[in-house]
Specification:
mainly alpha; single chain; 0% strand; 74% helix
């Protein structure tokens, strides 16, 4: 293989998380959850189990996404893979504090932004989330559906800030968009899986997961892009911090 044909560092990182990310996340969450005492009713134990349950839901949601045929994503397939790779790495950090995964998140953010700043890719990803979400369901699943629907609507209000923007500039806040797009796709997939579940026990677990996942990741302001002024202000803050006596 010639040097010219070797994959770039971002391509390699994305390929690793795309191929092995779910297994890495499952391992991290399993390790985190294994220390839980299900019989302990103390305040400390209840608080810890809540955090563990959030991470379990993250795994269930990614599994729902991976259960979908890759070819079903159509024009969104390429951008979706990049976005999902980011959120899987970010969730791994939440589960085990992995320094490697944290560093990979920066690489995966810029990798996804290369596509999300292009109109066709941005719109394809948003359309795929809308397609997966489908029509409003009945019962408790409706709350999850509504949160995804609301977040999709909010995404459209700042679309103009991202499409056509300089990826190097908007990368300053790029993780906000990459995270939001990936959560929309994953949450919509989880809602769709919940609606199609056949057994009552599976339905209950999936609906609970869909509601919690949407609540945790989508109830936030629309993702706003950074401007050159914002980038400069961030640099000024870091410079001041590193200069003794420059900040209070």
């Amino acid at each position: 293989m010639s040097a010219r044909s070797l994959p770039s560092a971002p391509d390699h990182v994305a390929a690793v998380w795309d191929a092995a990310g779910l297994g890495i996340l499952e391992g991290a969450v399993t390790g985190f959850a294994s220390a839980a005492d299900l019989l302990d009713g103390s305040a400390w134990a209840n608080a810890r189990r809540e955090e563990i349950a959030d991470r379990v839901v993250d795994v269930m949601a990614v599994r729902a996404w991976h259960a979908l045929p890759q070819l079903s994503h159509g024009r969104a397939r390429r951008v979706a893979r990049r976005c999902i790779a980011y959120s899987v790495a970010a969730d791994t950090v939440r589960a085990d504090g992995s320094g490697t995964a944290r560093a990979d998140c920066w690489t995966l953010t810029t990798h996804a932004l290369e596509l999300l700043t292009i109109r066709e890719h941005f719109d394809a990803a948003a359309h795929r989330a809308r397609e997966l979400l489908g029509v409003a369901p009945q019962g408790r699943l409706l709350a999850a559906w509504q949160m995804v629907d609301d977040a999709l609507g909010a995404l459209g209000t700042t679309r103009h800030e991202w499409v056509g923007a300089d990826p190097a500039t908007v990368a300053a806040a790029g993780c906000v968009l990459v995270d939001r797009m990936s959560r929309l796709l994953i949450a919509a997939a989880l809602v769709a899986q919940s609606a199609a579940a056949e057994s009552s026990r599976a339905t209950e677990l999936l609906v609970n997961a869909a509601r919690r996942y949407s609540w945790n990741h989508l109830r936030r302001p629309a993702p706003e892009a950074a401007t050159p002024t914002h980038v400069q202000r961030s640099a000024d803050l870091v410079h001041a911090f590193l200069t003794p006596g420059s900040i209070p």
